[in-house]
Automatic annotation (TrEMBL):
Keywords: Isomerase, Membrane, Transmembrane, Transmembrane helix
PANTHER family for this protein: 15-CIS-ZETA-CAROTENE ISOMERASE, CHLOROPLASTIC
Organism from which the protein derives: Cinnamomum micranthum f. kanehirae
Topology with respect to the bilayer: Multi-pass membrane protein
GO biological process, alphabetically ordered: carotene biosynthetic process
Protein name: 15-cis-zeta-carotene isomerase
InterPro entries: NnrU_dom (IPR009915)
Length: 374
């Protein structure tokens, strides 16, 4: 086993390479320094004096998520290809690291995107949205079939572009590909949502449990929880808007400890809650399409992460699960005692506020959707 010692004033790490990985192990900071006028002992040669010893490590400043964030900061590991042996800390937000200029750019980009979306797609006078919906609606008089076709078109574009992300980013760059990805996905997603809102009470009524005591409360709580399962990458708003360079992250803390695919879990909960409340064939068709799309996303997401991160993803995969709580119940994921602190962060607070705001804004959302006549 080859090893090298890196000396520093406060503490030291010895990098040990075995089984294809390099492990950083803390060693005592107090070393046997020689007494005055005594012969200098043969200490290991510091690794920073030997460039070849660090070249294969290509160490990066990411940390392994162990049983707690605090412990993870003390045990840093890296694989030979430069990726962390484990996942990243999700929903981390340091206000001190934020730049005012970045958020000014974000606000400007957001305003520009909304203006372009309205002009190119939403506005019936200038946009293509109405023509697109009319073309899809012409396929069938069944709202269920139209709903499924809209979801299929969105899924094909969204997941298709995600699958070609690596090749696309190499061709035109990370930021340009993110702009292209958002420019195609946003109009299609908006169209599908508006069509669902406008036709959610059409179709065949399968059941009606609105008057059953406790159902409204169950549906409300389920919907609220579903939004907490948002994929952690959506917390990186500056990356979403391409202000910061977009990255494919390997998350492991927070909601990821419960399920490796929180967006899928949240979508299933959302669909089942709405299907229970509305109980008709249109919502059933929408739920079938959305859940099917996200189940494909589970396979496709794992495939892409495995391709990008290799053995590091296999480590995260072994400690997490697709089915919520499965890894915890099987003992593969050990929750730290202060696990709740991983949710006491600004991104989760923001999601909570926005979720409550969306609930109270339902009348405005319905009115805006009806005004489009999609």
């Amino acid at each position: 086993m080859a090893s090298s010692l890196l000396l520093c004033p406060l503490s030291s790490y010895s990098f040990h390479r075995s089984n294809g990985f390099s492990h950083a192990v803390r060693v005592p900071s107090i070393l046997p320094f020689p007494k005055p006028h005594s012969k200098t002992p043969n200490l290991p040669k510091p690794s920073f004096l030997n460039p070849n010893s660090l070249a294969p490590l290509r160490f990066r400043g990411r940390f392994l998520v162990g049983t707690s964030i605090r412990e993870a900061e003390e045990e840093i590991t890296a694989s030979p290809d430069g990726f962390p042996v484990g996942g990243e800390d999700s929903a981390a937000f340091d206000l001190g690291e934020q730049k005012l200029s970045s958020w000014v750019y974000f606000s400007g980009i957001l305003g520009t995107v909304l203006f372009a979306l309205n002009f190119v797609w939403i506005d019936p006078k200038t946009g293509f949205g109405t023509a697109f919906v009319d073309a899809v609606a012409g396929i069938s008089e069944s709202h269920e079939i139209v709903m499924l076709v809209l979801i299929a078109i969105f899924a094909l574009a969204h997941s298709g572009m995600a699958s070609f992300r690596d090749a696309g980013e190499k061709l035109i760059g990370e930021r340009a590909y993110r702009v292209l990805f958002a420019g195609i996905s946003l109009p299609l997603a908006l169209t599908t949502i508006v069509y669902f809102i406008n036709h959610r009470y059409d179709g065949i009524q399968l059941w009606d449990v609105k008057s059953v005591p406790g159902v409204h409360e169950l549906v409300w709580i389920s919907n609220f929880i579903s939004f907490l399962f948002l994929y952690p990458s959506t917390f990186n708003l500056l990356e979403v808007a391409a202000v910061d360079k977009p990255k494919m992250h390997l998350w492991e803390t927070g909601i990821m400890r419960i399920t490796r695919h929180p967006q899928m879990a949240g979508q299933v909960v959302w669909c089942l809650a709405h299907l229970l409340w509305i109980g008709n064939s249109v919502v059933a068709a929408a739920s079938f399409g959305l859940i099917g799309h996200h189940l494909f996303g589970v396979w496709n997401g794992d495939r892409r992460l495995a391709s990008r991160y290799g053995k590091a993803f296999e480590v995260v995969k072994s400690r997490t699960s697709i089915i919520p709580f499965a890894a915890i119940l099987s003992g593969r994921q050990n929750l730290p005692k202060d696990y709740y602190k991983e949710f006491f962060r600004l991104p989760y607070l923001t999601i909570t506020v926005l979720t409550l705001g969306a609930y109270f804004a339902h009348p405005l959302m319905r009115a805006a959707s009806f005004g489009l006549h999609w």
